[in-house]
Structures are given as C-alpha cells and as structure tokens.
Design goal:
mainly alpha; globular
Length: 339
C-alpha cells in the first residue's frame, strides 16, 4: 500500500468516524467515495481487491472509532463490566438458599445481553467477511444496498409497533414529570456547571435506559444482535438495522439507539484489532503517518457523532437518514452507470 496520500487518509478517516455511527453505512460510503471521485482514488482505495490493503486501513480505523465510543460511554462500560464480573462471582458462589445462578442486577443482565447479541455477527464476520467483501464490496452493489438500507430505515419508522410508540410516550411522560418537579433547580445547576452538568444528566438517563433494556430478555438481544450481520454488506448500516430490530422488539427509539451504540463498541473494536497486524506488517510500511492522521480524524468524528446522535434520537426519527440513503444510492447508481 504505497499510494495512500494524506488527503485520502484524512477524508477516509473522517468519513469512517462519522458514518460508522450514523445509520448510513460507513463501509458503503468508503466503497462509493473512491469510485465517485475516480482517478487515483479509485485505484488506491479499492476495497474489493483480494487482500485489499485499503480494507485493512479502514477497518483498522475502527480501533479509533471504538476508542471514541469507550471514552464517551466509559462510565457505562465500567458499570457493565463490573456487572459481568459480579455475575461470574455469583456463578462460582451461588446465593445461599437457591443453589442456582441468578443475574440480579440490571448491569449483570445487560452485560450478558451484549455478549449474546455480539456472538452471531462475530462468528459470521470471522468466517464470511472475505466472501462478503469480494462479492458485494463493489461500488454499484454498495449503491444498491445503500438504497435498500434507506428502505429498511423508512420501513422501521412507518411500521413501528405500538409497544415501541408507547415506550416513547412513557419516557417523554416521565421526563415531563421530572421537569415539573425539579426543572428550576436542574436548570440553574445546568447553567452553572455547563457541559459537566449536561453529561451528568445524560449519564443518569443512560442508567435509566439500561434498566429498561435489561428487562427485554435474551431473545430480543440475540435477534437485535443478529440483525447486525446485514452490515457485512457494504451499504447496510450496522446501527441502522440494529435500531430497526430494536424498535420491532418494542424498544423506544432512544433505547434502541443506545443498545445499538453499546453493541457497536465490541464489534468495531474486535474488527479493528484483527486488522492491526496487517497495518503493522508490510502493508503498513511507509504510511504510518497517514494511518495516524486517519485514526485521529476517525476518533474525533465518532465522538462528535455519538454526542449528537444520543440527543437526536430522544425526539427525532430515522426518516431523514432513510431519505438520504435512497437519494444518495440512486444518484450513485445513475452516475456509476453513465461514467
């Protein structure tokens, strides 16, 4: 990989960081972008080429994206990891009088839900990633799947179950009661402490969301996690299909988004770590600076994206992203067919 320029690395890194968390498919955009730009970009950044070094680069950027997610959700992950290890202690030493292993806290249940949800996409990715990339990682196919992704997002909103809509209403009602009871004090504190108070409020809302998620059961977690397998197709968004699956299982849009972001962290991190040896080997010779630039921009883009999306999905829908994917996909199909 001797022709990766700093401009290519910077653009790809930023696109990767932003589109990984937006429900518009980072891999789809990283396949389409070089083809649409053309010239040396199309030659240097060909993800479908066998043993593609470009794929190693963009998947390696996943490490930076995962680190950004870990930084944003670090206190949540501390709780979840503690819940996991406390559940193991209970397995070794069951509660007296029961003789059975029982998960007692929301953090314990959520930890095992995340593990169960990660297994399907992890296994399929390890076995079939190369086949998916070679068969479907071509620009015209990525554009087609981007259109399909848009249709999935629109269908997820249009055919939302009553349970999901009711969950939205219940959360909104609870927050209205809190605002009426202590809005003045909270507003004063938030004005005084600024960003710190806002993050504290988000953390508390995250705890409440995790408590709701932990009641969904392991079948829901498995089905939502399995939906991520579709994201192996360039153009299909991991977070998008996970959110749609979550809403289909009755989650509020906000809780579906949070679960999708939590599920993304181990998947993205594992995918990136697996490609690190490629980047530190012969494929990475001479481009360490480009990798660093791409990684920094990927991490910054991911952190800003998740900050925005956590707030966005409290009150807004997947519809704009669905429309964007359909328009961008169709436009790409037309352009690639003509050029």
């Amino acid at each position: 990989m001797t022709h990766l320029t700093y401009l290519e690395a910077a653009v790809v890194g930023l696109v990767q960081g932003v589109t990984e968390l937006f429900p518009i498919s980072s891999l789809g955009h990283n396949v389409l972008l070089p083809a649409l730009v053309g010239g040396s970009w199309a030659a240097d950044l060909n993800v479908a080429r066998p043993e593609s070094p470009y794929l190693a680069f963009i998947v390696g950027l996943h490490v930076a994206t995962a680190i950004a997610l870990l930084i944003y959700f670090w206190r949540d992950w501390v709780r979840i990891v503690k819940g996991f290890f406390s559940s193991l202690r209970q397995f070794v030493q069951p509660e007296e009088g029961t003789g059975r292993w029982q998960l007692q806290t929301a953090d314990q249940r959520l930890a095992w839900m995340i593990i169960l949800a990660t297994i399907p996409v992890g296994l399929v990715g390890l076995v079939f990633e190369h086949e998916f990339r070679v068969l479907f990682g071509k620009p015209i196919r990525a554009a087609i799947f981007l259109v399909i992704n848009g249709l999935i997002l629109l269908a997820g909103e249009f055919f939302r179950r009553k349970a999901s809509l009711r969950a939205d209403q219940e959360i909104a009602h609870e927050r209205e009661l809190v605002a009426v009871g202590g809005g003045r004090r909270a507003g004063t504190a938030r004005h005084a402490a600024g960003h710190q108070a806002e993050r504290e409020a988000e953390y508390e809302q995250g705890i409440q969301s995790d408590q709701r998620l932990s009641t969904q059961g392991y079948l829901s977690a498995f089905l939502i996690g399995s939906a991520q397998i579709l994201a192996l197709l360039a153009g299909i968004s991991r977070d998008g299909v996970a959110m749609v699956a979550g809403m289909f299982r009755g989650l509020s849009r906000e809780d579906a988004a949070r679960f999708a972001f939590l599920l993304a962290t181990p998947v993205i991190l594992a995918a990136g770590v697996l490609k690190v040896p490629d980047l530190t080997g012969p494929l990475g010779h001479g481009i360490q600076g480009q990798i660093l630039v791409g990684s920094i921009l990927s991490g910054v883009g991911a952190y800003l994206s998740v900050r925005f999306l956590v707030k966005y999905f409290r009150t807004r829908t997947l519809t704009p992203f669905g429309i964007y994917c359909i328009v961008a996909g169709l436009a790409s199909i037309v352009y690639l067919s003509v050029v």
